[in-house]
Amino acid sequence: MTNSPEQPARRSRTIARVAAVQALFQCEQSGDNAETVVDQFIRHRKITPGASFEDGHIPDADLKLFQDIVRTTTWNQDEIDKTIVAALPETWNITRLDPVLRALLRAGAYEILKTDVPGRVIINEYLDVAHGFFSGDEPRMVNGLLDTLNRNKAAANN
């Protein structure tokens, strides 16, 4: 197997997405704003090259992507939540979702709705993140919901 130059960049984006889900969860649970939590992650979790998970740090994350996901998702949370609720079964409320799942869906929904990254890439990334947090049916839910949002965006753009 050969290492392509894109692998380290892809890995840093994946790590940034995992950290963003954790930060969004922290924002919701603590009530702290995005700037406070982003600062805490940078200072205390050391989102820097050379850091290690073993030390409780987040190594080699794409800092710009991390900041963008956390800040923009929290700034647009009401709009994002409405979009998620519209894709959920009619009898479901967003508060019914596990808080980590809610944070993950918010981050994924933000990237699908507000960025130019191809939807399939975003869905695959957040599906991998979901598998890291959950061992039940949650990854399938993430796949289905983000796929619905991606198809809705594509239909609206045509």
Account of the protein in words:
By secondary structure, the protein is mainly α. The chain has one domain (6-157): N-utilizing Substance Protein B Homolog, Chain A (Orthogonal Bundle). It has 7 helices and no strands. The protein has helices at 6-30, 34-44, 63-75, 77-87, 99-114, 119-133, 138-157. The termini are far apart. The model has no long low-confidence stretch (mean pLDDT 88). This is Transcription antitermination protein NusB. Belongs to the NusB family. Involved in transcription antitermination. Required for transcription of ribosomal RNA (rRNA) genes. Binds specifically to the boxA antiterminator sequence of the ribosomal RNA (rrn) operons.
What is the string of SSEs from the N terminus onward?
Answer: HHHHHHH
* Total of helices: 7
Regarding quaternary structure, what we see is single chain
Shape: globular
**Fraction of residues in helices?**
over 70%
Strand % is: under 5%
Largest sheet: none
Query: Mind telling me which CATH architecture this is?
Result: Orthogonal Bundle
CATH superfamily: NusB-like
State the separation between the terminal residues, measured CA to CA. 40 Å
CATH topology: N-utilizing Substance Protein B Homolog, Chain A
Mean pLDDT: 88
Secondary-structure class: mainly alpha
The number of distinct structural domains comes to 1
Radius of gyration: 15 Å
The CATH class, by name, is: Mainly Alpha
Which segments are poorly predicted (pLDDT under 50) over 5 or more consecutive residues?
none
Number of strands: 0
InterPro entries: NusB-like_sf, NusB_fam, NusB_RsmB_TIM44
Pfam family, one: NusB
Keywords: RNA-binding, Transcription, Transcription antitermination, Transcription regulation
GO molecular function: RNA binding
